[in-house]
Amino acid sequence: MNPRRLVAAASVTLIALIFLCVAWELWLAPLRAGGSMLVLKVLPLLAALFGTLRGRRYTYQWSSLLSLLYIAEGVVRGTSDAAPSATLAWGEAVLASIWFGLCLAFARATRPSLAADRAQY
């Protein structure tokens, strides 16, 4: 797949995940009325955002590991929280899973050995 499309898809997915996490922890279903400190969980996502938008391969590599934390949190809270928090948690797990797949696809599509293989032919 085209790396530019992967960057666009991963960027949209990551931004959607950031917005979901902020809205979830501040307005939609916070642990405490008025919002919770769990909103700080978006800080690692923000660290990955700029490299993701710029298509930096190294960011895609390390952020793929970061996405696993959000998948795990989504699954745990999806199975243990009550609605509407459980629904939001499953949404987080789905978005993080899509982001994980896109990170892997981008890293694979931009691997240095692929460019060397293409240069030989």
Report on this model:
By secondary structure, the chain is an all-alpha fold. The chain has one domain (3-120). 79% of the residues lie in helices and 0% in strands. It contains five helices and no strands. The protein has helices at 3-28, 43-54, 57-80, 85-109, 112-120. It starts with a helix and ends with a helix. InterPro entries: DUF2069_membrane. This is DUF2069 domain-containing protein.
Topology (SSEs and partners):
Blueprint: H1 3-28, H2 43-54, H3 57-80, H4 85-109, H5 112-120
Organism: Candidatus Methylophosphatis roskildensis
Protein name: DUF2069 domain-containing protein
Keywords: Membrane, Transmembrane, Transmembrane helix
Summary keywords:
single chain, 121 residues, mainly alpha, 5 helices, 0% strand, DUF2069_membrane, transmembrane, membrane
Global structural class: mainly alpha
The count of helical stretches stands at 5
How many β-strand stretches?
Answer: 0
Summed up, the domain count is 1
Q: What distance separates the N and C termini? A: 20 Å
Mean pLDDT: 92
* Helical content class: over 70%
So what's the overall shape?
elongated
Pfam family, one: DUF2069
InterPro entries: DUF2069_membrane
Keywords: Membrane, Transmembrane, Transmembrane helix
Protein name: DUF2069 domain-containing protein
